[in-house]
Amino acid sequence: MKVHQGPLLYEGKAKRIFQTDHPEQVVLEFKDDATAFNALKHSILQGKGVLNCQISAHIFECLEKNNVSTHYLGLAGNNSMVGQKIDVIPLEIVIRNIATGSLCKQTPIVSEKELDPPLLDIYYKDDNLGDPLLTEARLKLLGLITDRQREEIEEIARKVNSILLEFFQTIDLTLVDFKLEMGFNNSGKILVADEISPDTCRLWDQRLNDPEKRILDKDRFRKNLGGVVEGYEEILKRIQGASGKPSNAVSDC
Ligand code: UDP
C-alpha cells in the first residue's frame, strides 16, 4: 500500500514509527536490531527486520480473516507496514501453552509442562521497572483499563491463541507462548497492535526432536544457539507454503 512516510514519531528497540500524511495512520519499520534481557544483549542480525515484518503481516492478515481486529492495514515495503494510529495500552499480555522461560525460572513448574487451559499473564510494560508481572489487584490499582476492558483484552488474547495454535499446527510448528500488545484506536476500539513474530513468540519445529535444534524463535539469540535468521526464515518459508494451500475449516489463514 502506498503512503507518504513523514517524520519519525518514536524509535523503540526493534521498530521505528513514522507519521504519514494520514492523521490516523503510521508506518512501522522493522529494524535488524536484536535485543534480549532488557536490552543488556544487543546484536544486528541482517535480514531480521524484513522477516519479522513479513511474518507479522501474514499473522495479522490471518487474525483479521478470523474476525480479530488488529492495527494492520497493509505492507508499505519489505520491512515496513502501515498501521492504524493507536494509544498503546502499556501492558504485555502473555499466553503460554507450554511452560518454559520466565514461568519456569520463577516457579517450580517443570519445563515443557502442557498448560491446559493456557496460562494468561499480564505484565506492566516499562523497561525501567523490568516489565513486572501484575496481579489483578495491581492492575486495578494502576487504573489503565476498566474491568470490562480487561475481560475484553483477555478474550481477544485467548482467541488469538486458538487461531494461531491451529494455524501453526498446520505447518508443523508448536506455538509454545507469545506476547501481545494492544491499543485503542480513535473510536476507542481495542486492537491487537505492535508485532507478532519470532521475536515475540516461541515456536518449536515439530519435525525435529532435539530440544535446541527445534527452536526457531528469539530463544536462539537469547541462548546463543546461532542460526537466528535461519530459524526465522524457516518460519516464513512454511507460512508462505501454507498460504498456497486450501484453507482449513476453523482458522482461515
Ligand atoms: N516476550 C516478549 N517481550 C517481552 C517479554 C516476553 O515478546 O518483553 C515473549 C517471549 O518471546 C515469549 C513470551 O513472551 O514468547 C513469554 O516470555 P517469558 O515471560 O517466558 O520471558 P523470557 O523468558 O523471554 O524472559
CATH arch. level architecture of the domain at 5-87 = 2-Layer Sandwich
Oligomer: single chain
Order of helices and strands: EEEEEHEEEEHEHHEEEHH
Estimate what percentage of residues fall within beta strands. Answer: 25-35%
End-to-end Cα distance: 20 Å
> What's the number of helices?
6
Query: What is the 3D form?
Result: globular
Largest sheet: 6 strands, antiparallel
CATH class of the domain at 5-87: Alpha Beta
Average the pLDDT over all residues and give the rounded result.
96
Rg to the nearest angstrom? 18 Å
Q: Number of DSSP strands? A: 13
Secondary-structure-based class equals alpha+beta
Helix content: 25-40%
CATH topology of the domain at 5-87: Phosphorylase Kinase, domain 1
**What ligands are attached or bound here?**
uridine-5'-diphosphate
Low-pLDDT runs: none
Q: Can you identify the CATH superfamily of the domain at 5-87? A: Phosphorylase Kinase, domain 1
Describe this structure in words.
The chain has 253 residues and is α+β, with helices and mostly antiparallel strands. It has a domain at 5-87: 2-Layer Sandwich (Phosphorylase Kinase, domain 1), CATH 3.30.200. Helices cover 29% and strands 32% of the residues. The strands form three sheets. Strands 8, 9, 10, 11, 12 and 13 form a six-stranded antiparallel sheet that branches. The chain has a five-stranded antiparallel sheet with strand order 1-2-3-7-6. Strands 4-5 form a two-stranded antiparallel sheet. Helix 1 (48-65) runs parallel beside helix 6 (228-243). It is globular, with a radius of gyration of 18 Å. The protein binds uridine-5'-diphosphate. Uridine-5'-diphosphate (UDP) binds at residues 92, 94, 101-103, 131, 177-179, 200-202, 218. Uridine-5'-diphosphate binds next to strand 9, helix 2, strand 11 and strand 13.
